Amino acid sequence: MGFCNLSELDRAASDALSEIAAESGVDVKECYQCGKCAAGCPVAASADVDCRGVIRLLQIGDVDRVLTLQMPWLCLGCGVCLARCPQSIDLPALNTAICRYEMKRGIAAEREGEAFMNIFLDNVEAKGVSDETMLAMRYNLQTGHLFQDVANSPRMLSRGLLSGNGYKPAGGPDVKRIVHDIRAGEGGTK
């Protein structure tokens, strides 16, 4: 796996690129910047740099810039980019590897994407399913967006999208165990 001529990079950037490449299994040299990934990405319009831009920055060895981007944290992992890519470059895996690298190194203060991920995983690990009401409340409290969903609440309640009772899925205990095992393998993401 490689990104660019590593001899031209400083040692820290070289180590970061090698670790991200190894974890993601992605060789960004394979990308020829066709743009199909960015054209299909549902979060590209909201991101500071689209997914193609992340790869390009890695190709030229600008790891410092990549580690400041919001795009890896915004990635939904939906796989649209991967499905559209003629080179089968796994961008969700690459974005996940970048986020994990940042978390392991404590490079950035907790971002909203990391806060959402941890709250979501806590929620699923505790209940075996995502309790959307609890997820929204905890996320809004933790990030300081206290009233961001207030205008939508009546409509969501009337459609049964919010509930104080939650529900118990048939495979809840299995889901809890899977999330727990994943977190244990990552060194306890939190």
Task: Detail the topology: elements first, then pairings.
Elements lengths: L10 H14 L11 H5 L10 H9 L3 H4 L4 H4 L5 H5 L6 H15 L6 H16 L4 H12 L9 H6 L13 H14 L5
Walk me through this protein's architecture:
The protein is an all-alpha fold. The protein has eleven helices and no strands. It has helices at residues 11-24, 36-40, 51-59, 63-66, 71-74, 80-84, 91-105, 112-127, 132-143, 153-158, 172-185. Helix 1 (11-24) packs across helix 7 and helix 8 (112-127) crosses helix 11 (172-185). The longest helix is centred in the middle third of the chain and has 16 residues, at 112-127. The radius of gyration is 19 Å and the shape is globular. The chain starts with 10 loop residues before the first helix and ends in a 5-residue tail after the last helix. Residues 1-6 have low confidence and may be disordered.
Query: Looking at the structure, what is the overall shape?
Result: globular
Low-confidence stretches: 1-6
Number of helices: 11
Residue share in helices?
A: 40-55%
Query: What is the CA-CA span between the terminal residues?
Result: 28 Å
Q: Would you count the extended β strands for me?
A: 0
Mean pLDDT: 81
Major sheet details: none
SSE pattern? HHHHHHHHHHH
Percent of residues in β-strands: under 5%
Could you say which structural class the secondary elements and strand pairing correspond to? mainly alpha
* Rg on CA atoms, Å: 19 Å
